[in-house]
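Bumping with the actual sequence this time:
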Amino acid sequence: MTFTEDFYLNSIEKLSSLSDDELIHSFNKEVGNLGWTSTRGAYLSALNDAISQRNFKGTPLIIKGGRMSIKRHISLRNNQLELV
């Protein structure tokens, strides 16, 4: 297993244990961050998967075709994702 794969698995485990609000906060911290490394790619992939697993309403606002957009902040109200 590569470092990036191991990092992804650790990240998905940590993100899956967060509350809904903590998960949304983790997403919002990534908005506007233009830096890129393979480790960040693994983290964003884990974040994408963790959000997808929650089955929030409105997920297509940020995840289209399996790819997550971190262009805008989001909020969660009554299990519904909304763009801020």
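The tokens above came from a reply further down the thread. The first helix runs from residue 3 to 16.
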